[in-house]
Specification:
Layout (H helix, E strand, L loop, with lengths): L1 H106 L4 H55 L1
Helix pairs in contact: 1-2
Length: about 170
């Protein structure tokens, strides 16, 4: 009976050792899997944070470019307004001087016929100067508006292209 007890004890000991080895192997596999999951999770988190930071950086850069375009547009509009103002002032000054010169000339007319000719010539030249000035002012205004909207149009175009590329 002692042999049977030893055999049973030996078998039990062997079963315990086998079970212990099996549990240890399973624990090591589980730990390795957990480490893989942890590494994959950390990598995914890192990539998500990197993408978020990159997106925020891009949004910030776009905002800065948009602000720069607005400033450039306002500057162009201001320059256009200044040019129109200077042009109007110069035209007003010239018109005043031409009117004074015409009045002096008409005051020295020796006959009604000469007065009518001087007035007709002055009216004709004043009308031509006015029409020329209107054309010049229209061209200045058109160029000013075009220059003012150019930076904004460029930003809109760039944004549309970026959104289409992101699709």
């Amino acid at each position: 009976m002692a042999d049977a007890a030893e055999t049973i004890t030996a078998a039990a000991k062997k079963n315990v050792e086998t079970a212990t080895a099996q549990v240890k192997a399973n624990a090591e596999k589980a730990q390795a899997q957990a480490e893989k999951f942890q590494a994959a999770g950390a990598q995914a988190f890192r990539e998500g944070v990197d993408k978020s930071v990159a997106s925020l950086t891009e949004i910030n850069a776009q905002g800065k470019k948009n602000l720069e375009a607005m400033v450039e547009s306002a500057t162009a509009a201001q320059k256009g307004a200044e040019a129109l103002s200077q042009n109007a002032f110069a035209y007003g000054k010239k018109t005043w001087e031409d009117g004074v010169a015409a009045a002096q000339s008409m005051a020295q007319a020796r006959s009604v016929q000469e007065l009518i000719e001087l007035q007709t010539n002055w009216a004709k030249s004043a009308t031509e100067a006015y029409l020329s000035e209107v054309t010049k002012a229209t061209d200045l205004f058109t160029a000013s508006v075009k220059d003012s909207f150019k930076p904004i149009n460029e930003r809109v175009t760039a944004s549309v292209e970026k959104f289409q590329a992101a699709r």
